[in-house]
Amino acid sequence: MAKQPESNQSRPVPAPPKVMPEKISIPTNDLQPAVVPRTKKPLDTVGPDIGKTRIRSESVTLTVPEIDDEGAQQTELTVTDHLHRNRRPLSSFLVSLIVHTSLIVVLALLVFNKPGDSIISLTAEVTNTPDPEVAAMDLEKIEIVAPDEDQSELELKQDDLSVDTEQLAPQINNSLIQMPSDHENPAQAEELAPIAPNQTLPTGGGLKGRDAEARSRLAGTRGGSQESEQAVEDGLRWIVNHQLEDGSWRLLHQMGECNGRCKNPGTRESTTAATGLALMALLGAGYTHQVGPYQSEVRKGLDYLKSQMRIGTYGGNLAEGSMYAQGIATIALSEAYIMTKDAELRVYVEQAMKYIVNAQHKAGGWRYNPGQPGDMTVTGWQLMALKSCALGGFEVPRETWEKARTFLDSKGESGGSYYGYQKPGIEPVSTAVGLLSQMYLGWPRERAALQTGSERLADWGPSKVDVYFNYYSTQVLHHMRTPVWDEWNPQLRDYLVQTQDKRGHQSGSWYFRQKHGKNGGRLYTTAMSVMILEVYYRYLPLYDDRAVD
After folding, report:
1. How far apart are CA 143 and CA 244, in angstroms?
2. Are 277 and 287 in contact (CB under 8 A)?
3. How far apart are CA 20 and CA 17, in angstroms?
4. Helix (H, G, I), strand (E, B) or coil at 375
5. By the 8 A CB rule, do 1 and 17 touch?
């Protein structure tokens, strides 16, 4: 992740990546290897440096001011008192002019602040009933051996960390919420670019594959193995055993039950980011606060995120000084809502989404702080969060999608086959993030830029140490389902199975000595590795008609 400009504050987010010159050949330094034919390239090729996505913990001053109701009331009283004190000198005409002008301004604000429509509406839900299409497939099933309830080393205590949703109810902006209708077609929402005949549009990507039955079938047919599924369960057990009593997880994971028994803690801290990553890994396996062996731990984690949200005029702040954390925590809350339909989560998802919408820069991207000109990796997390909210039935303003599309296009090279971090370029991590983002914003699978870009991702990796590059690239290739997937998947899958720690209290975890791995530590590396191995069912393929009802 890239290095932020110098400031007087200590930044918890890593330095921005070195942006390559516009006329670029594929990098050949020790972090970004030269292109090697995939049939001959060894797995130990080192991928791009992922020190571009650091997560920060220190609070910073938002560029968007927070406004509370008390302040608004004080302003109103001051104006009223002023008019009262000077009512005699004012003519009745002047008073009338002031009052009517104020009313016109207020009405204008109400009219022009109405949110727009979203570009693409995706619908999905997770139920205990498998997708009929998935269940009907004659697929190899992989047995999932989930841990028992008592296998966690943590005491299963319930801390009352929830926030009274009735206190938040008056702050809900209902105009941003609209459940999609049954007849909505995502293709019909795309009005900007004509759709060529026989193009495969993204209509899938839902969470139905996380159902226990669908999970075992999809793991068997999409490229998983019995060993990879066992690695997922062992990784989740390690994550659960490093949850703290307040329900949170920390990148500095050695506190609590661990008591320093696991090496390689992170050097940065963000409790909402760490908790969001842990919950994303658990939810990816289908384990919620209502279903699965870790219901208590998931509930405590969700309650912790709810307790950390700071509600203001611009939405629910979970950033703790970094928009990375905002995006990650929002994904965790929205996925939990989609999978359970827990009404108590709804207000938190909406407020977190609202904060992301308001934090967008006018040019369409996001960066570390609200309102900053965007970079590709921070923008990627926000777009994934917004798409997750859309899956849950929350309507993101159309303007937000349009500006995001403009931002992505402005960072693309060769028609969008490659992407740079803050300007057009050819950078592996940014390319993986940019391609996945464009897929979710509506690019058809047949688009030449997607074909070219996905081929290049396969040439660049899999990486031996860069789990961030692997995380995004794996999703792109899984959705594309081109022949390169059959080369990429077994290499990365088996490498992660082989490198998972088997020693003592570290058993089930991963750690790769790399710049961002050092900042995020063993918790970050483990959560990302687990989610890579969950790719077969975590999100259904975008371009599969059977992925949605």
Report:
1. 31
2. no
3. 9
4. strand
5. yes
- The beta strand positions in 279-337, using DSSP E, are 310-312, 315-317
User: CB–CB of 284/536 below 8 Å?
Assistant: no
Cα–Cα distances in angstroms (integers) from residue 376 to residues 214, 300, 408, 465, in the given order:
33, 32, 8, 21
**Comparing C-alpha atoms, which of 442, 445, 469, 439 is closest to residue 456?**
469
For residues 500 and 217, give the distance between their C-alpha atoms in angstroms, rounded to a whole number.
24
C-alpha to C-alpha distance for 447 and 468, rounded to whole angstroms = 25
- The gap between the terminal CA atoms of the chain, to the nearest Å, is 38
Q: Which two tokens stand for residue 385?
A: 């969060």
Q: How many angstroms separate the CA atoms of 54 and 44, rounded?
A: 24
Percent of the chain's residues with pLDDT above 90: 55
CA angle 46–50–56, rounded 5-degree value? 155
Q: Report the C-alpha gap between 412 and 428 in whole angstroms.
A: 12
The CA-CA-CA angle for residues 192, 198, 204, to 5°, reads 75
Q: Is pLDDT larger for residue 278 or for residue 172?
A: 278
Q: Helices 448-460 and 467-480, interaxial angle, to 10°?
A: 140
CA 513 – CA 466 distance, rounded (Å) = 9
Q: Where are the alpha helices (DSSP H) in 161-200?
A: 165-168, 186-189
Q: Are 22 and 8 in contact (CB under 8 A)?
A: no
Q: Tell me the C-alpha distance between 272 and 301, whole Å.
A: 10
The closest alpha carbon to 544, from 297, 267, 266, 206, belongs to 206
CA distances from 525 to 225, 249, 266 (A): 21, 13, 10
**Residue 311 backbone dihedrals phi, psi, to 5 degrees:** -85, 130
Query: Positive or negative, the Cα torsion across 432, 426, 362, 445?
Result: negative
Instruction: Return d(Cα 496, Cα 219) in angstroms, integer.
Output: 16
The region of weakest confidence among 205-209, 401-405, 485-489, 492-496 is: 205-209
Q: How far apart are CA 143 and CA 230, in angstroms?
A: 9
CA distance 389 to 494: 33
Residue reference for tokens 């009593």: 245
**Residue from 340, 331, 345, 349 nearest 280 by CA:** 331
- Calpha distance 520→511 (Å, rounded): 10
User: How far apart, in whole angstroms, are the C-alpha atoms of residue 189 and residue 183?
Assistant: 12
Cα 549 from Cα 545, distance rounded (Å): 8
The C-alpha atoms of residue 452 and residue 426 are separated, in whole angstroms, by: 12
Q: Which residues on neighbouring strands pair with residue 412, listed in sequence order?
A: 419
**Arithmetic mean of pLDDT, 149-178:** 35
Q: Note the residue count of the chain.
A: 549
> If we measure between CA atoms, which residue out of 349, 412, 350 comes closest to residue 379?
412
- Whole-prediction pTM value? 0.69
Residue 344 CB burial class (10 angstroms; 0-12, 13-18, ≥19): middle
